[in-house]
Amino acid sequence: MCAAMVAGVDSSTQSCKVVVCDADTGEILHQAQAPHPDGTEVAPQAWWDALCTAGDGLFDQVDAIAVAGQQHGMVALDAEGNPVRDALLWNDVRSAAAADELILELGGPQAWAEAVGSVPLAAFTVTKLRWLADHEPQLADRTARVLLPHDYLTWRLRGGGPSNPALEPTTDRGDASGTGYWSPADCEYRKDLLALGFRGRTPELPRVLAPAEVAGRTPGGVLVAAGTGDNAGAALGLGLGEGDVVVSLGTSGTVFARSTAPSADASGAVAGFADATGAFLPLVCTLNAARVLEYAAALLGVDLATLESLAAQAPPGADGLVLLPYLSGERTPNLPHATGSLHGLRPETMRPSHIARAAFEGMLCNMAEALDHLRSRGTGVRRILLIGGAARSTLVAEIAAQIFGVPVTVPQPNEYVALGAARQAAWALSGAAEPPTWSARTVAEIPAPDARSIGTHIRAEYQRAQGDLYGGSSAAPPAPVPRRQRRRSHERRT
Q: ω before 336 within 30° of 0 (cis)?
């Protein structure tokens, strides 16, 4: 008898990735991908086209499939199943003012944290609905359903669309927890918050499935699992255990852990998400991670391998040179108008090796602050699982162990979001009480250093630089003066 095969999909901002795995062992048998259009608003049809391209020749070989997608995005459909406009993605910040309005209208951050476990930011779906209601009210009036990106693709896989608009869409608790109108603690939609966000409108929402529940089948008969959001997919792909904390170093950074209790952080730093197993996934997000190394390499005119070699030549702490890595502003800490800056420039530190070292340490100190937020909410840290593009650097893992002060494990580089979706598909196919056990391979295990003083010193210097510039890491700098206003001021002076 042939072993069952399952497919997992990672529909991310940049592309659609598909992995086909052995349902019993998790061995990856096939992989494919297709690009997504650039931008912060995208036609949902482009995701479907990319999924069909990446899955061509693969989906007819599998027994089950699941989709993990980028969180928060707003897919607004009319009664005929057509999008009323391009989907607004998580990284579209036009709804930042709407987030501020909604926080005030409900009674402040604590009220939101108690209601849905998170304080809404521009990324959250509820803020995008407010923007749509205020700026495109005719399109808001046409909106009959609101889906998330993974919901939309799961619906299309099951045969939903303009040709079959009556098919009921589905979602899961992991992705629903990022909308701002679903409560992880109560496992139910908050229709009052949906109406608050959408100016009184209450469009149809997807049915929330249990983690291993079957969403349906494709027209060809392949089982379709519930699917989930990208971070919950990665957690499932990694098989997070108690005391495991993931630090993901992509273009932006995330720090998250599996928890048995819901989170409700009124500061807004920790998002109180659900996971894809029935537990919870407290998560902290930063805007700057691997991009810090990319831009440092560009500044020095070298590639990333040479940047790592240079950084290894400088001593830990870079003789007091500190990089605050807020190159695109920052979300955690909340410094939206900040810029990156170097501190401690002296003749002996104005060297390529020291600047390179400061880039590595600045990136990881920023992630250590994110980790501090999780710890402050009661998350125990036994070890760090380091993933993402920057985790491929041996030096990153070594410095991470110094700064975090706990053992660091680097899993084999893999498409963990897609792998988590595949594992969920295997779980739904089996009908078992728990997901299948898939063994994970490790590239490196780095113990916490015996002397914690090195990491403590690096972080103390980093915090001193923050205090010198902003009066503390939580103090936001003033908003920059627009270029037009600066030009006019110059013209008046001259």
A: no
* Window from 40-44, 279-283, 294-298, 482-486 with minimum mean pLDDT: 482-486
DSSP character for 251?
Answer: S
- Of 190, 138, 145, 149, nearest in space to 166 by CA: 145
- Classified as helix, coil or strand, 467 is helix
Secondary element (H or E) of residue 134 = helix 125-135
User: Torsion over CA of 355, 361, 363 and 365, rounded to 10 degrees?
Assistant: -140
Predicted TM-score (pTM) of this structure = 0.89
Q: Tell me the one-letter amino acid at 272.
A: G
Contact in structure between 122 and 285 (CB atoms under 8 Å): no
Q: What are phi and psi of 62, to 5 degrees?
A: -100, 165
Residue type, 352: P
Measure CA 127 to chain center. 17
Residues acting as catalytic residues? 230
The Cα 262–Cα 191 span in angstroms is 20
How far apart, in whole angstroms, are the C-alpha atoms of residue 255 and residue 247? 5
The closest alpha carbon to 461, from 311, 332, 316, 320, belongs to 320
pLDDT in tens, 375-429: 998 899 999 999 988 999 999 999 999 999 999 999 998 999 999 999 999 999 9
